[in-house]
Fold this protein.
Amino acid sequence: MSVTDPVADMLNRIRNACSAGTPVAEMPHSRLKGRIAEILQKEGYVRKVEGEPRKVLRIHLKYFGDRVPTIRGLRRASRPGLRRYVKAQSMPRVLGGLGVAIVSTSQGVMTGQEARQRGVGGELLCQVW
């Protein structure tokens, strides 16, 4: 089955797994989705990321106490029908710095804060809080 927007599919799978309280979200692997998952792990939103290229990507979700997910919200900013590009100076701050923006730049996929520090802009993929 072909998916027209793999990043949106990834975010929906994570959102659905958090709503259901399941420990793992599985999806087809790609380099872009793997890098987004690594950023989520580095920022403390997920526990562990497993996966081999061209196979299944497993994201072990993180919960507070009584099954309250650490990921409160996910929003796809740029989509295939309407790409959203931002400059380094106008990089959005998610919830006043409490969330994270994920940006695809010429130097790779990174957080909005990293892109702002390096002075590079790019496509705003998603926002997580």
